[in-house]
Amino acid sequence: FVFVTDYATGIRPFYHMRHADDPTLTNSYDLVFNGVEISTGAQREHRVDVLVEQAKEKGLDPEELGFYLDFFRYGVPPHGGFGMGLSRVIMLLLHQPSIREVTYLFRGPNRLTP
């Protein structure tokens, strides 16, 4: 297992919090197992004014994010999150060449439902 940390702001979403001492980096990580990313996580930005500015930097229109930003206008505590790709872990543990081999209903760019 390897943790890859301190990603550049240019390759992370606008809602990832930036380092206090180096605003070109985010407080985020990827967890890599046998060369495959199995988890991504970050400390999330909770200050609405910072979120608006970072969204603009990414070319997003804050007006289109109104419903999302409203949560933060009413106060959101500092928080973080991560996503674990359980199917990826199973694929690696079972030495399978593709995630399709371990997923009942694979969802990809050409199949989103069911």
Tell me about this structure.
This protein is an alpha+beta fold and 114 residues long. It has a domain at 2-44 and 78-101. Helices cover 23% and strands 22% of the residues. The chain has three helices and four strands; from the N terminus they run βββααβα. The chain has helices spanning 48-57, 66-73, 86-93; strands at residues 2-5, 28-33, 36-44, 79-84. The chain has a four-stranded antiparallel β-sheet. The radius of gyration is 17 Å and the shape is globular.
How much strand content do the residues show?
15-25%
The low-confidence parts are none
Number of helices: 3
Largest sheet: 4 strands, antiparallel
Average pLDDT rating = 92
Strand order of the largest sheet: 1-2-3-4
Rough outline: globular
Distance between the termini: 32 Å
Helix content: 10-25%
The topology string of helices and strands comes to: EEEHHEH
The secondary-structure class comes to alpha+beta
The gyration radius over C-alpha positions equals: 17 Å
Short description:
The protein is globular. It has helices spanning 48-57, 66-73, 86-93, and strands at residues 2-5, 28-33, 36-44, 79-84.
Topology (SSEs and partners):
Blueprint: E1 2-5, E2 28-33, E3 36-44, H1 48-57, H2 66-73, E4 79-84, H3 86-93
Antiparallel strand pairs: 1-2, 2-3, 3-4
Keywords:
4 strands, alpha+beta, 114 residues, 4-stranded antiparallel β-sheet
